[in-house]
Amino acid sequence: MPLRPWDHGTPAGRDETSQRSTQKPPERVAFDRKELQTILGFYGTKVAEGEWRDYAMDFGREKAVFSVFRRASEVPLYRIVKDPSLARKQGLYSVVTQTGLILKRGHELATVLRVLAKTPKLSTI
Fold first, then answer.
1. Contact between residue 84 and residue 67 where contact means Cβ atoms under 8 Å apart
2. 105 has which bridge partners?
3. 42 contact partners, CB below 8 Å, separation of at least 6
4. Which residues touch 19 (CB under 8 Å, ≥6 apart)?
5. In the predicted model, is pLDDT for residue 73 greater than 60?
6. DSSP assignments along 74-125, one per residue
7. Is the pTM of this model over 0.85?
8. Least reliable range by pLDDT among 3-12, 49-58, 63-72, 84-93
């Protein structure tokens, strides 16, 4: 039975493993909708606090990068990097400072972004 464009299954006589092996890897790495919602939600909080003002996204063959700026004319304060080659090793996501120091790596984006959250400070009155 031929596969119609609106069918999402596999055609008769073909299994999914043979289909997967013939597919090309993605030409570039990108953040999916859920990842962008997480990043932009955190970014919005920092903008409301007045710490961050601009961002840039770069989608390359090996990694995707979300850069955060204090001003558009500066170098990025932080880079949130998605690197699939490290997914099974150190973690898919990392937060990198402007000097190249890796602040945190991990498998979950929300956990990695916590390193950028301010911890409340206690003060005496």
1. no
2. 94
3. 113, 116, 117
4. 10
5. yes
6. S--SEEEEE-GGGTTTT-SEEEEETTS-EEEEES-HHHHHGGGSPPPPP---
7. no
8. 3-12
